[in-house]
Amino acid sequence: MTRTLTAVLHKENDLFVAECPEVGTVSQGVDIEDALRNLQEATELYLEEFPMERPARPLVTTFEVAVHA
């Protein structure tokens, strides 16, 4: 069985950081594909130990903030 989960990525220094908000797993890689591959592996290993009953879909939205220069 497979499940579709969410990956949120951002760049920190020279690495890409990938996080799965449904599970809470985080990984990194030298490029986006590497970060996603590492996140997939970390999430699969996590779910072997802590299976998900029902995946909760995260609510993803945007918001604005005032930026003072």
**Which range does the strand content fall in?**
15-25%
How much is the radius of gyration in Å?
14 Å
Uncertain spans:
none
Largest sheet, order of strands side by side? 1-2-3
Distance between the termini: 50 Å
Number of helices: 1
Shape, please? flat
Average pLDDT figure: 92
The number of E-state strands comes to 3
Order of helices and strands: EEEH
How does the helix and strand content classify structurally? Answer: alpha+beta
Estimate percent helicity: 25-40%
Tell me the major beta sheet: 3 strands, antiparallel
Describe the structure.
By secondary structure, the chain is of the alpha+beta class. The protein has a domain of 42 residues. It contains 1 helix and 3 strands. It has a 3-stranded antiparallel beta sheet with strand order 1-2-3, with helices on one face. A hairpin with a 4-residue loop joins strand 2 and strand 3. It is flat and about 50 Å long. The model has no long low-confidence stretch (mean pLDDT 92).
